[in-house]
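Customer escalation, tier 2.

The customer says the design service returned an amino acid string that "doesn't look like it belongs to this structure." They asked us to rerun it and document both sides in this ticket. The original structure tokens are below, unchanged.
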């Protein structure tokens, strides 16, 4: 069983006001100086996927998310099942 401190909440969304590019926000890693801006940016975007990754191995999980963002921003169509397959055991 994972505690709240053992996982990181994230969302992949598409920015709709500026570039229409896919972005990720790791909510539980936001600091006071960027919390409001990043949350507002995600809220105004188009939701694609959200979930939790395990804190242990988070760097590997973040690299996978970045590769997914690259694929999405290059025009590849992915669904939530593909995100879950790619992240695999990194999901909490």
């Amino acid at each position: 069983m994972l505690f709240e401190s053992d996982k990181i909440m994230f969302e992949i969304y598409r920015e709709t006001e500026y570039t229409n590019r896919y972005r990720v926000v790791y909510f539980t890693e936001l600091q006071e100086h960027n919390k409001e801006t990043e949350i507002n940016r995600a809220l105004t975007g188009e939701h694609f996927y959200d979930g939790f990754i395990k804190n242990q191995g988070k760097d590997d999980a973040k690299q996978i998310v970045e590769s997914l963002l690259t694929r999405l921003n290059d025009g590849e169509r992915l669904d939530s099942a593909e995100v879950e397959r790619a992240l695999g055991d990194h999901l909490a």
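Tier 2 assessment: The sequence is consistent with the input. The beta strands are 7-14, 22-26, 46-54. Residues 10 and 51 are 6 Å apart (CA to CA). Sent an explanation to the customer and offered a walkthrough call.
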